[in-house]
Amino acid sequence: MRTPICDFVRDYAQRNGTRLHMPGHKGESFIGCERLDITEISGADSLYEANGIIAESEENASALFGCKTFYSTEGSSQCIRAMMHLVTLYAREKGETPRVLAARNVHKTFLYAAALLDTEVDWLYGDGDLLTRTVTADAVGKYLEKSEKLPHALYITSPDYLGNVADIAGIAAVCREYGVLLCVDNAHGAYLKFLPVSEHPIDLGAHICCDSAHKTLPVLTGGAYLHIAKDAPSFFAERAKDSLALFGSTSPSYLIMQSLDAANRYIAEAYPGLLGEFCLSVMEIKDKLRIHGYLLYGNEPLKITLRAKAYGYLGTELADILRDKGMECEFADPDYMVLMLTPEISREALDALCSVLCDIPAKEPIFSKPPVPACGVRRMSVREAMLSPCEWIEADKAVGTVLALPSVGCPPAVPIAVCGEVLDANAVRCFKYYGIEKISVVK
């Protein structure tokens, strides 16, 4: 498979001409990648008006994913906003105010999109704590059956941050029964397409989804995909570039685009075989950890998520132990430690990880549980809250106030409360539990 973006930039760099254009480093080395860092010069195409090498590269990606695929150099965050813009256009074409039903464990970027686009959002809470809430096909069906006015789309996150994969096929079937679009934040699951049997949302019935290529594929940070199914509303593919451009920089990174371009060849050649073998190795490690006494969470093939308290530790304590051994986890909080794996990790490194974890002596389980956020009482819309004058106050003084901004960090960026909701004592307990001492509230 050709890599047209990489080939063009490499050829340009080798010519070593005088760069009378941006960027300001002029190809001179300061951190090492400058020779390959260019902008929209002649022949380089333009991401949001692509009809040359970028268009060819995106066509290669589309062939690999079996749908219409577009590049983002600003992560899934840009794609999430674009997805919601397309849903907005879908609703406006019907002469209706856009309404989205969303699982409560959304990434905070979804809230930013709702604010920017003035989208009405209804919530599906699911069971579990902040990070383990799951949405089932049955729950979606019951909600839609009782709805006096159907939403235009259902928006879910799968896999979630801890590695639980939702029943996308079942949920998609329910959505199609009611004529509701299914949008999936698949940021952690780009690789799911290339398992021996695809588990990618588009193949399971989603109309549109985003993948963060950089999270699980060998792509530079910021590289992502927006995927549109063949049976999505026809204008989705036609307007996708407009939607991405609405939220994207006019100076998209050519380094990231080269990385996405190079990934196409890697995926087309060696990746599926490597991925299949690596997943078997990860399964072996998971089995060893279970036998040793660890309790695992989630069913995602490339994540190992430990329920730390069941082994007698906080997740942050296990993370510190790994860090002392030169191993850095993806995420840790009092309850969980998340390890993200890809075939770029050697079998030796996997075995070393297993050895370190198994050398940690088990202790008496810790039985405390994280607080479960209550169902929020909406005082104003997400947009009204985010665009209102606000102030930062101590979290323990926030009962009765209205949340202005999400006030959660990334990772995991799952909102404890939603902008525009009245904060109760339980919400405040959640903020304190997760170490958030100051929050933004409407004045």
List the helices and strands and how they pair.
Elements (H helix, E strand, L loop, with lengths): L3 H12 L37 H13 L2 E5 L2 H19 L5 E5 L4 H10 L2 E5 L12 H10 L6 E5 L10 H11 L2 E5 L22 E4 L1 H4 L7 E5 L5 H14 L6 H16 L1 H22 L3 E2 L5 E5 L7 H10 L6 E2 L3 E5 L6 H13 L17 E2 L3 H5 L3 E5 L26 E2 L2 H9 L4 E5 L1
Parallel strand pairs: 2-3, 2-4, 4-5, 5-6
Antiparallel strand pairs: 1-7, 6-7, 8-9, 9-11, 10-11, 12-14, 13-15
Question: What would you say about this model in short?
Answer:
The chain is built from 14 helices and 15 strands. With 443 residues, it is of the alpha/beta class. The strands form four sheets. It has a seven-stranded mixed sheet, with helices on both faces. The chain has a four-stranded antiparallel sheet with strand order 8-9-11-10. A two-stranded antiparallel ribbon has the order 12-14.
Tell me, briefly, the overall form: globular
Task: Give me the strand/helix succession.
Answer: HHEHEHEHEHEEHEHHHEEHEEHEHEEHE
Q: State the separation between the terminal residues, measured CA to CA.
A: 56 Å
Number of strands: 15
Keyword list:
14% strand, seven-stranded mixed beta sheet, 443 residues, four-stranded antiparallel beta sheet, single chain, alpha/beta, globular, 38% helix
Structure description:
By secondary structure, this protein is of the alpha/beta class. Helices cover 38% and strands 14% of the residues. The chain is built from 14 helices and 15 strands. The strands form 4 sheets. The protein has a 7-stranded mixed β-sheet, sandwiched between helices. Helix 1 crosses helix 9 and helix 3 packs parallel to helix 4. The longest helix is centred in the middle third of the chain and has 22 residues. It starts with a helix and ends with a strand. The mean pLDDT is 96.
